[in-house]
Inverse folding.
């Protein structure tokens, strides 16, 4: 794709946003200032956005608004997390406080535990099988094996997932995303200036976001994330397109059950319908609606603050036909779905190769 | 002012932003989710913004953009910090990592130390007197005594400031803002819908922001904050008004020297000119350009994430003529100035009683 891009002088960047959870008191603080220095844009405003695992999804939305408002032409949005340099005991604590404390964490519930409850209930309500959950991991590892930036590039079998040590019933170790280090960035430009940087831009067609109660017990359903539903409805409304126009999804599969729920909440399967879609191969590369062609959080990894930006990166590569062996054929529209705090917040961003 | 406001159904709030530093791993995380619950707006997107002591200033700018973009009509912007429930040893650490670590914190420099260096250099370059620094504290305590929401409502004398225990030469204890708990919130509404909520709105006339190197040694000057200068220039440019239209300032006086530098960097005195302005009484209530009529960070307190929102609150009260004994007469335009990380970032927001 070398001929279509025209390079970027960083002086063209008007503003930046950074999504990161950060481990305050352990790592450096004031991360927006550090981004300004390391990106070579000192002087420009930089804002750190932190919404747990959806930090970069919300940072992208802030960046989009900065341009839509007419205030900025070019905005850098980055996401980053360095998770492995903290002791696991403390890291568990830092991550844990992004979930509900009063009703869940102090009772011993972890994020795996919360999603384990969702999975159990999904099985009861919809007859979802353990095999369908496992197939999400198998598929995403197969996709990750095609992604040079993936944390895990190793295919796994359904039998391995089913035999993996139980973490939070019914979820095993291979149903859980790993602890990863990572960073990703996207450059947003107003429609009228994007041509200065590339002949093959990807459009942000629509954005949406929502919130929900942090504790599961406050929600009417354990098998659906209202924040995702709200975010998706807004994103499709602002994009002005229908779900059938979408060729693939980047969803927040922090646990295998999360991918099934995402497919349903985003409106690509009826409640309980994602398992069959997954087992049929429809969500695999080569299927009718590939989900997480980059390997998803499960195999690409889940460096908290970076995840939302890495989803946008994957969509950018795919919509430009530059995804190599994991290319989704004829991909022209796709969405990214980023979740914070087991569904307390969510963003959905619809991307398109042309104006919608 | 009871008759001019029409109340607010919280269902009218489309989105919210929260400015807070937070002590992660000590206090609850996912603070945006907590705001959604406590504000009764679960479902609406809420974004946490963290830019050290300028968190709420940047949150306000994100809120303004959400409306300017056309995406939202009504946006809540809150700021909060609960500082006193952490042990002082750990609090010092959490605050410290918002400054430069590599060149300053690990060498033993605290925020007081950084501003002490600025003050020393300001004295050398501009002949600024110890008395002028002290007078900032005397004035802000006098103002705080008139503010029922101030942390300190106790007037102090210049002799007391000069005799207070030395913290970081030349700054004494009474040159430093306190450790405070606090919260503040503002409601932003699009011009076309504001009339539903009040007959006496205050306009956000212009916003500006900037960044700078985190470590003092990287900056060309120790006596001026480039981030403030940049933010002010942008705010006045977008507001389309001149500095002479402003009747009073809310500035980030985390230390007495910071107020002098702010007055100069904002363009209301030449370099070195703020000391004389202060000693003349011009920046006191009753003077020609009152600064920090609410007592400023020095006396009102500096609950980190709340400060930028509390500045907007003060300006709102003043421009509506509702500031009681600390009212600035005929106040029609004012600005708020919020700084993060000893000048690594800054926002300036210009407010007006009418369109500019």
């Amino acid at each position: 794709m070398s001929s279509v891009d025209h390079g970027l002088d960083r002086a063209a960047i008007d503003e930046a946003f950074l999504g990161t959870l950060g481990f305050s008191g352990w790592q450096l603080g004031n991360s927006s200032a550090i981004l300004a220095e390391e990106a070579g844009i000192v002087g420009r405003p930089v804002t750190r956005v932190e919404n747990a695992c959806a930090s970069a999804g919300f940072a992208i939305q802030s960046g989009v608004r900065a341009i839509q408002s007419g205030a900025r032409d070019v905005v850098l949005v980055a996401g980053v997390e360095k998770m492995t340099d903290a002791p696991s005991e403390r890291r568990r604590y830092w991550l844990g406080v992004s979930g509900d404390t009063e009703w869940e964490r102090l009772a011993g519930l972890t994020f795996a535990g919360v999603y384990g409850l969702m999975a159990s209930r999904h099985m009861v309500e919809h007859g979802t099988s353990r095999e369908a959950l496992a197939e999400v991991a198998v598929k995403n590892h197969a996709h990750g094996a095609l992604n040079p930036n993936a944390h895990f590039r190793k295919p796994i079998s359904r039998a391995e997932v089913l035999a993996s040590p139980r973490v939070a019933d019914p979820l095993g170790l291979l149903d859980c995303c790993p602890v990863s280090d990572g960073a990703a960035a996207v450059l947003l430009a107003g429609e009228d200036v994007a041509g200065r940087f590339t002949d093959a831009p990807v459009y942000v067609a629509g954005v949406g976001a929502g919130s929900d109660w942090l504790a599961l017990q406050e929600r009417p359903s354990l098998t659906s994330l209202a924040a995702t539903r709200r975010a998706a409805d807004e994103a499709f409304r602002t994009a002005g397109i229908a779900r059938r126009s979408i060729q693939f999804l980047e969803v927040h599969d922090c646990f295998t059950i999360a991918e099934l729920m995402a497919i349903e909440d985003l409106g690509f399967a009826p409640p309980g319908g994602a398992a069959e879609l997954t087992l049929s191969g429809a969500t695999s590369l080569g299927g009718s609606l590939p989900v997480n062609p980059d390997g998803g959080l499960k195999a690409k990894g889940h460096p908290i603050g970076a995840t939302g930006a890495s989803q946008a990166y994957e969509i950018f590569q795919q919509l430009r036909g530059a995804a190599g062996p994991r290319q989704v054929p004829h991909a022209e529209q796709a969405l990214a779905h980023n979740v914070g705090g087991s569904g307390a917040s969510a963003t959905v961003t619809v991307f398109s190769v042309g104006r919608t």
